[in-house]
Design goal:
Blueprint lengths: L1 H18 L6 H34 L4 H4 L2 H27 L16 H6 L6 H34 L4 H34 L3 H24 L3 H17 L1
Length: 244
């Protein structure tokens, strides 16, 4: 998901930087918009599925492998992907009904649906209603599932008698919590900056954090569970401390 999301935005950004030309074709913008909607929001669903997986592993450890089997994981992924594709198609079809001026400018370095709607010349009331409705449902449901899962996980961890068991349970959730914080933190920062600042530079910086920094950091966060990676990091920190 991270690779596809970055591939939808970064190559065009690099081409624009090289040619010093910030334009994009109408068809290219619609295509980019659909891919951003699919892969940018698919991670939201996958984080919800992963939170459920952590909940089952900690709260129902004896039946974890039975509940979270390969078939269920595959079905959850395909369902998430299908919902995001349908959402992207609906958004794309509704944007096709809009008309634009001769030189519309988007403060992001990629085509994002709310920014595209904002620069339209025709009435975009239905587009805005559908965008906020879809965002509320498709982001609210996974987020609610994540919060519910971690409430149950926290309750289960607090009931554990040993400190070692608590640490082990918490370490199981550490990478997911880090990625969850990165995803929602940078995403929220992007939309807040777009809503409250009129500086296109600040909005572009926020969107770079959302589309470049988060996908780049996620593999490092997940790899921190690997003992070899942890050992290598300890050696690096020790060498830095010794050098100082």
């Amino acid at each position: 998901t991270d690779i596809c999301f970055s591939t939808a935005t970064i190559p065009k950004m690099l081409a624009n930087l090289q040619t010093q030309n910030q334009s994009i074709t109408y068809a290219g913008c619609l295509t980019q918009l659909c891919f951003v909607l699919i892969f940018g929001a698919l991670e939201n669903f996958l984080l919800g599925v992963m939170a459920y997986d952590r909940y089952v592993a900690i709260c129902h450890p004896l039946t974890c492998t039975v509940i979270m089997n390969i078939r269920l994981c595959g079905l959850l992924f395909l369902l998430s992907l299908f919902i995001r594709i349908m959402n992207a198609l609906f958004h794309g079809l509704m944007v096709l009904q809009l008309s634009f001026g001769p030189d519309p400018e988007i403060p992001y370095f990629f085509c994002e649906v709310l920014q595209v709607i904002e620069v339209a010349c025709s009435d975009a009331l239905l587009n805005n209603i559908f965008s906020y409705f879809a965002a509320t449902i498709l982001c609210g449901v996974p987020l609610s599932g994540i919060i519910f899962s971690y409430i149950q996980i926290a309750s289960s961890i607090l009931r554990m008698p040993s400190a070692g068991g608590k640490y082990k349970a918490f370490s199981t959730c550490g990478s997911h919590l880090s990625v969850f914080s990165l995803f929602y933190g940078t995403g929220l920062g992007t939309y807040v900056s777009a809503a409250f600042t009129h500086s296109s530079r600040k909005t572009a910086v926020a969107s770079v954090m959302y589309t470049v920094a988060t996908p780049m950091m996620n593999p490092f966060v997940y790899s921190l569970r690997n003992r070899d990676v942890k050992g290598a990091l300890r050696k690096i920190f020790r060498s830095i401390t010794a050098f100082q």
